[in-house]
Amino acid sequence: MSTAFHLETDSSSECSNKTAIEALHHYIDTRQNDRSEHLIHIEMAMTNSINATTGNSLMELLYGTHFQLFPHPADASSAIPAVTHFFEKINESVQLAKDRHVIAKTRQATQANR
């Protein structure tokens, strides 16, 4: 972990730290009791996102493919209620993350254009 005041810190590390902290804040806004459980999801999202400079994700550069925890079915229904509930929660979390990402991008653009 680096800090903004460390002499060897580059802007890339600062940006990554800011992104991780902001994502964590957005994710735990409604779920205050499970912060540590969502760090892996934020890490996977960050390493699976496409870098503007390289045009590839870190996972793609290191392993040749994007990382997937499991295949996501087109139809989330299942004969097993727990599986259906699991996929519904994932879809709900993904939609929440997308909505909050749009809000964050809008806020950042507003701040940058002042």
Give a structural overview:
It is a single chain. With about 110 residues, the chain is mainly alpha-helical. The chain has two domains: about 1-65, no CATH class; about 70-114. Helices cover about 55% and strands about 0% of the residues. The protein has four helices and no strands. The protein has helices spanning about 10-25, 40-50, 60-65, 80-110. Helix 1 (about 10-25) packs across helix 2. It is globular and about 50 Å long. The two termini are about 30 Å apart.
Topology overview:
Blueprint: H1 11-27, H2 39-48, H3 58-63, H4 81-112
Helix pairs in contact: 1-2
Give a concise summary.
With 114 residues, this protein is an all-alpha fold.
Total DSSP helices: 4
Structural class by SSE content: mainly alpha
Shape call? globular
Give the DSSP E fraction (strand runs of 2 or more residues).
Answer: under 5%
Please, what is the average pLDDT? 77
What low-confidence regions span 5 or more consecutive residues with pLDDT below 50?
none
* Helix share, percent: 55-70%
Radius of gyration: 17 Å
Largest beta-sheet characterization: none
* Overall number of domains: 2
Sketch the topology as an H/E string, one letter per element. HHHH
- How far the N terminus sits from the C terminus, by CA atoms, comes to 31 Å
The tally of strands reads 0
